[in-house]
Amino acid sequence: MTQKEKILLQLSEKKNVNIEFALIDDIAKMNNKSMAVLKNGDNAWKSYQDYLTKADVPFKRMINAYDSVTKVDSDSRALASKVESMAKEIGVSPSSIKGYDALNSNANVAKEIWKTIASFKDPSTFQ
């Protein structure tokens, strides 16, 4: 026996009861629509969480790169300082030494990399 038939049977036993059977269809349609929307919403946040979890790996790689940039910048500045001292001793411009200007230019690039990396938030904080 279908749900409509059960309701008809119950109603036939009662007097002065009026119900629109279209409402039963509306309930079924709304429940189907709700289930689809809820499933989509549930999958959406799960997909985003998976995305963030996967983002942890490149984020950690980026932080390691940040540390590497810091180290190479420090080493480069120490070398540039030695070159400047040596150039002063022998009376030449440090810029006349091959690679010195690129060494200093790299320091500016390092600053930009630091600023960019520092602007990112750890994806694990969103989970």
What keywords describe this structure?
127 residues, mainly alpha, rod-shaped
Structure explained in plain terms:
- The protein contains three helices and no strands.
- By secondary structure, the protein is mainly α.
- The chain has one domain (31-126).
- The longest helix is centred in the middle third of the chain and has 70 residues, at 21-90.
- The protein is rod-shaped.
- The mean pLDDT is 82.
Quick synopsis:
The protein is mainly α.
What topology does this entry show?
Elements: H1 3-13, H2 21-90, H3 100-118
Oligomer: single chain
**In whole angstroms, how far apart are the ends?**
48 Å
Number of domains: 1
* Count of beta strands: 0
User: How much of the sequence is in beta strands?
Assistant: under 5%
**Main sheet makeup:** none
Uncertain segments: none
Number of helices: 3
Structural class, by secondary structure, is: mainly alpha
User: Could you tell me the radius of gyration in angstroms?
Assistant: 35 Å
Helix content: over 70%
Coarse shape: rod-shaped
The residue-averaged pLDDT reads 82
Order of helices and strands: HHH
